[in-house]
């Protein structure tokens, strides 16, 4: 039990659930169809039932499970029905039906999920369709096997040995993705190597695309905008230059010849030093549309709105809106703008990005980060569904929630996978991969329901275990916000690797690289004034939303210091001063982690030894980190405000200079 099986463990059922399945005695009926997705669905049903029953399912005499993968229905691609019927002979029959074979595969996985959770096969009734067409994972993996912001070992993609060698992991990866409805994978980092556009890589990409096709997964690549120069031998990458257009068209032609269902290109342009159309005084739309023309109606250009270039004195969080809002309606129909959940950068908490709902004539998808770059990386328990739900459920003020804005298009998550046996570097980070897929399938699912599903399939269905563990998971995201960056603080992490607290850092070249730029703390107060008296980033939101956040006394204090610079003595809604409230939030975060670690100890009887110990040690690291964040932050704020700690408060364990001197040359970057 090293975690490799993920949520597809299919552990033997026990008790009444076992009796029901035994009694049902499922028989997977062979369709005789040659369709690869149908074959995969049959195989998975057999594998899953073997696990759940504790033996290979019978081949006749029981209740048939029938796949009808061309049922003539219409609707969203991937939709399916699962229903039990009573037959004349008294036995049940379970039918999985869909309009296409991938829908059937999704239906098979959905049925296995229900059975894994102990549902009665005789009464299963499911009718589902994906809420959005694109449900993608973005890998920040490099050809040399390193992973940008990866905390789970090396890349799962073995470019060195492809195309001849296809690791079995690539199939298990596809199974895991298909089981949660992921249907697109960008295999390489947005800080893209031009190698992916060379002849050498084409057969490698083709091998992966072929392997994943039965699982309903389309392959995409990130492309470097200046690739025509680096690997095309041209002198320019100007999107309006005819030879540049022709080069991209030729590349797309080769890709489609090898991979007829190639998904398209993901592009990070003119951001953090990446090349882009602005290098030639062209707009993002001109750059994106040129690539879109090269793909034609065969594929999609996903253009990232995460633009971050030296912004001088203006507020960094305003840049994307300023650059993209004027381009609304200017993008080709096969271009999608991919917008991070918040306007800064995957922080433990951010208000939703003001571009959501603000570009009605532009297709827009949401980008979330599954890998926990800014949330403690791969340690402890930090369940991210509540973070994503908070964003998805947010009313944009433009007549729709964020979920409604993106549902016509899709969602992408920056993957947290690596070569570690447990895939994600930490057992509980598997839950974030799972939750991302489930939310992209249906943003209406609750964090609670998703956690229950994951826990039941991954660890144990014992109701006592589930009842105790799920609330821990649900409160874990607020805990990390509390001990790292409470009350709307953001980007207080260490330079470069983003590991650990560094609110004091103030000497980096560009102002917005510094944590001090975001906290704006001094002797008098703390917080970033984004109201009219400050950067006025608030004005990028719809008037109803801006009005609500403009008043620190009525707004949700979870975002307080994101929008307001306030004196330390400011009276918060709890009645405490800002200083006392800040400290109580750090304490709350530390206490929450302590209690997770304590509770985990009591769960030992339900968990196999290997994973029990693994999680316990991970929680020990998280306890240490929570204290470190609290203590280092308080020590720094105190060095500015010289305020005493509230009575009875534990002083930081070490001096500020101790925390400032800590270095982490071993932290992954
Ligand atoms: C930031 C990461 C950086 C990424 C960038 C991006 O620190 O490694 O390249 O986002 O999304 O969060 O492009």
What's the short version?
The protein has 669 residues and is α/β, with parallel strands linked by helices.
List keywords for this structure.
669 residues, alpha/beta, Chitobiase, domain 2, TIM Barrel, Alpha-d-glucuronidase, C-terminal Domain, 3 domains, eight-stranded parallel beta barrel, five-stranded mixed sheet, 20 helices, globular
Kindly give the count of domains. Answer: 3
Spatial strand order of the main sheet = 6-7-8-9-10-11-12-13
Q: What is the number of helical segments per DSSP (H or I, 4+ residues)?
A: 20
**Cofactors, ions and other ligands in the entry:** beta-D-glucopyranuronic acid
Please report the total strand number as a whole number: 15
What is the gyration radius calculated from CA atoms? 26 Å
Main beta-sheet annotation: 8 strands, parallel, barrel
Uncertain spans, ≥5 residues at pLDDT below 50?
Answer: none
What is the molecular shape?
Answer: globular
CATH superfamily of the largest domain: Glycosidases
